[in-house]
Design a protein that fits this description.
alpha/beta, Rossmann fold, 6-stranded parallel beta sheet, 5-stranded parallel beta sheet, 9 helices, 15 strands
Length: 260
Amino acid sequence: MRWLIDLDGVVWRSSTLIEGSDRAIRRIRDRGDDLRFVTNNSTLTVEAYVAKLRSLGIDADANEILTSALAARLALGSDQRVLAIGEEGLTSVVAEGNTLVRPTSLEDAEKVDAVVMGWHRGFTWDLLAQACVAIRAGARFLATNRDPTYPLERLVVPGTGALVASLVASTSVEPTYCGKPDWPMVELVRPHLGATSTIMVGDRLTTDGAFARALEIPFALAASGIAEHDDGTTPVAVRAADLLGVVTAIDADPTILHAH
């Protein structure tokens, strides 16, 4: 069996480990199961995600990390002049095969081939204006994900979707979304599906649940992250308070995965 596990809101909230998630992952590995960490957060590099997991007592390898930045690169292609609005996890990936540009003027922004936007805690009006001009001049517009919010330890702050909304409002152009549940992440993850069965564990029905539906695999909802209204349209095979609860429920009755 293979597990696809979200990070923010399932394994941790910001830099704080969600209680029991380390034990849950050890139990998954002790079962002999494989896993992949699938995140819409594009701020960190794959290597940084591995280091963060290990610092929290969770063993991980680079080939187990799948990010929305990698999905964005898949959708973007290569040999383009790219205005990447994001942190190192996005810019370092987009730079592979493309040229990162920082326009020196708004007129210079008209020469950009593509704008790729991720979560960026240094987002400014200047970046917004440059991206707006580039997109209005015909640049492709890609965004790492739709997530409107991001969970900190106690609070919730604006996510990538909130930043993207400012560009949509100023350009009237909808981006190609690249993270869960959209097609670039589906294409990135599909080769990693298990030969027998795979389950997606996440805290958001609208992203993780919809992603599981796109992959035609069961979805387990861990209620340790972002609380969303459940309108009943997303099938949920397992509901639990957290990742450890999900693993415990499946260990107790593995047949629940085959009933959905």
